[in-house]
Structures are given as structure tokens and as C-alpha cells.
Design a protein that fits this description.
This protein is mainly beta. It has no helices and eleven strands. A hairpin with a 6-residue loop joins β4 and β5.
Length: 126
């Protein structure tokens, strides 16, 4: 059973930065996908980024490319999300999630993930 520790959300002005961190435990295999998702009120969940555990290849949503950067510490099972140039439309509850196969990174689709953190709120507002 997976467990997650998420941190780093908060309130920031447009153009500002935040860093989210997720430490996961309970992995039973080296083959998995770990990612960040977000859900804004009234909207469907969106995959922000997903990482293949074996190759390290990262798939970013078009909406965050060039602004968000992921880094992973495999030894500590920690995934960090550096968010720069934040916009009001980035406001959402951000979740760390795991899928039990490494190929899930490519589509980074909400339905493929079965283990979720509790979420951390990011609010971008002046």
C-alpha cells in the first residue's frame, strides 16, 4: 500500500514560484510511473507531469512546459515540482500519484493511476 507525503503548496502572486515535494513509499516493483496531477474546481483532473521510473523520461502537459520542472531522487523516492511563472489558471489542488507500470507516463492519464496523495493546494492570485 502506497503512502505519500506532499508539501509545498500555498498562495503566490502571478509570476511567482512555488516548489512542491512528494515522498512516496510502499513500492513493490521498480517499474512504475510517478506524477503530479491537479484538479481545479469544476474541471476534470489534469496530468501535470509523469515520469517513467526506469528511463526517467518525463512527460509534461503543454500548459506547463517551460514553466514547471520535475526532479526525482530515486533513492529517497522523492519527486519535486518546481513551478515558475505561475498563472492564475494554475490554481488547483495538486496531487502526487503512482501507477503500477512504467508505460503510464506517456499519456499521463488520470484513469491509469490508482494511488493518490492527499493533495496540496496551490493558489495563484494577486
Amino acid at each position: 500500500q502506497y503512502q505519500f507525503e506532499e508539501s509545498g503548496g500555498g498562495l503566490v502572486q502571478p509570476g511567482g514560484s512555488l516548489k512542491l515535494s512528494c515522498t512516496a513509499s510502499g513500492f513493490v516493483s521498480d517499474y512504475y510511473t510517478i506524477g503530479w496531477f491537479r484538479r481545479a474546481p469544476g474541471k476534470d483532473p489534469e496530468g501535470v507531469l509523469c515520469i517513467n521510473s526506469i528511463s526517467g523520461i518525463t512527460k509534461y502537459a503543454d500548459s506547463v512546459k517551460g514553466r514547471f520542472t520535475a526532479s526525482r531522487d530515486s533513492a529517497k523516492n522523492t519527486l519535486t515540482l518546481q513551478m515558475n511563472s505561475l498563472k492564475p489558471e494554475d490554481t488547483a489542488l495538486y496531487y502526487c500519484a503512482v501507477a503500477d507500470y512504467s508505460g503510464a507516463y506517456y499519456q499521463c492519464r488520470y484513469d491509469d493511476f490508482h494511488a493518490w496523495g492527499q493533495g496540496t493546494q496551490v493558489t495563484v492570485s494577486s
